[in-house]
Amino acid sequence: MKQIPMLDLRLEYEYMKNDIDAAIGKCLEHQKWILGPEVKELEEKIADYLGVKHCIGASSGTEALVLALRSLAIIRKGQEYFDKTDEIITTPFTFTATGDAVLRSGATPVFIDIDPATYNIDTKKMREYLVSHPSRVVGIIPVHLYGQSCEMDEIMKIAREHNLFVLEDVAQAFGGMWNGKRLGAIGTAGTFSFFPSKNLGGFGDSGLVSTNDDTIAGLVRMLLKHGGKDKYNVDHIGYNARLDTLQAAIVLAKLKYVDEMNEGRRKIAEIYNRELAGTDGLSLPSSLAFASHVYHQYTIRLAKGKRDDLQKFLAEKQISTMVYYPVPLHKMKVFEGRGKSPYPLPESERAPKEVLSLPVEPLMQSGDLTSVVSVIKTFCSSGK
Q: Is omega for the bond preceding 325 within 30 degrees of 0, making it cis?
């Protein structure tokens, strides 16, 4: 029986092979492996794509978050790190890096529950917390989970009312939009991951910070190179977090395909939506009116217990699936005594038991897609 993977990176490489091989070959010729010309070119092209003044490459999406937060601490506090009394609102239903970066910046993550329809942070609950704790919060990190934009108009309105920064976590949503604007170009700054499985991915870890703020951009550039403009005479506590030339070259080669690949994901999502509509016990992804979803993941939902049974049934048919994410941040040991959950988080605790992400390879063959749909329908109609 044929294996149907979540994502087929070999298939995508073959599709882009000539461009990727040429990009790697160029690096082999010039041998400028640290901050070579491809890094600057990628930064400029993504800045143009997003419609921002500055993009700064980084060694990973995680480090991009840390670099941006450290820069904001220096600007807002006049010191290297935030204090523990400084709170940053974010979602607990995300990858560890989002909350971990807050801790590494010195601040305390405040976990606010999610909207069960979008899986993104609930802005109403965010407002509720800010009414009672307005002086402690310094910023918001909205995560555009699964490729679906957060409600950025409302988040930006809240931020203006309370003088907060907004750092968009766009790790899963490159190319996504909200109300006509690219994600990563709306907040104070944005961060991206080019991990291989992302909508725009390299051949290893890499990431990027986007911003229209000259001071943030300047500080990020200093921090990623040990903390100074001159590495032998530095100003701040920095990192070795540069974007590798080779990764920049590969991401640059793939950049011209990103809209095509995102459209491929949308078409797969449309087929799933059409074919699985009305299937008993199944909830399909929602798409907000002002959002352009890029379906980094196509995530369905089943009642507790049924999800695990379906995942096992699909695995028996050689169909890969994933649960993103099985443990919410506030339940992780690392955040015990370091994170804050001011209210119950029922939706963030329920979602990990019910969500299931299906294959959404943009170059997926129609027969494979038909097989996935058929197996799901068979399971749901069987009453298992």
A: yes
Residue ending a domain, choose from 221, 255, 289: 255
Strand stretches in the chain, DSSP E: 54-58, 87-90, 108-111, 137-141, 165-169, 177-178, 181-182, 189-193, 207-211, 282-283, 291-292, 298-302, 355-358
Using CA of residue 359, residue 364, residue 365, residue 366, what is the dihedral sign? positive
Contact 10, 363 (CB under 8 A): no
In a domain, 3, yes or no: no
pLDDT of residue 180: 95
Mean pLDDT over residues 337-357, rounded?
Answer: 97
* Pair (23, 45) in one structural domain: yes
Where does the pLDDT of residue 1 fall: very low under 50, low under 70, confident under 90, or very high at 90 and above? Answer: low
Q: Which residue has the higher pLDDT, 363 or 303?
A: 363
When divided into structural domains, the chain yields a total of: 2
Is pLDDT of 295 > 90? yes
For residue 96, how many other CB atoms are within 10 A of its CB? 14
Helix (H) or strand (E) holding 10: helix 9-30
Q: What pLDDT was estimated at residue 384?
A: 66
Which DSSP string corresponds to 353-367?
HHEEEEP--TT--HH
Q: Are residues 156 and 30 in the same domain?
A: yes
Same domain, residue pair 289 and 224? no
Which residue type, as a one-letter code, is found at position 132?
S
Pairs from 310-319 (Cβ < 8 Å, separation ≥ 24): 310/356, 310/376, 310/379, 310/380, 311/356, 313/375, 313/379, 313/384, 314/372, 314/375, 314/376, 314/379, 317/1, 317/371, 317/375, 318/1, 318/2, 318/3, 318/4, 319/4, 319/359, 319/371, 319/372, 319/375
In a domain, 23, yes or no: yes
In a domain, 4, yes or no: no
Name the pTM for this structure: 0.97
Q: Which CATH number goes with the domain that contains 362?
A: 3.90.1150.10
In this structure, the strands spanning 282-283 and 298-302 are antiparallel
Please give the mean pLDDT across all residues of the chain. 97
- Final residue of a structural domain among 231, 255, 279: 255
Give yes or no for a contact between 245 and 39, defined as CB atoms under 8 angstroms apart.
yes
Is 294 found in the same domain as 195? no
Average pLDDT over residues 342-353: 97
pLDDT digit string (tens) for 325-343?
999 999 999 999 999 999 9
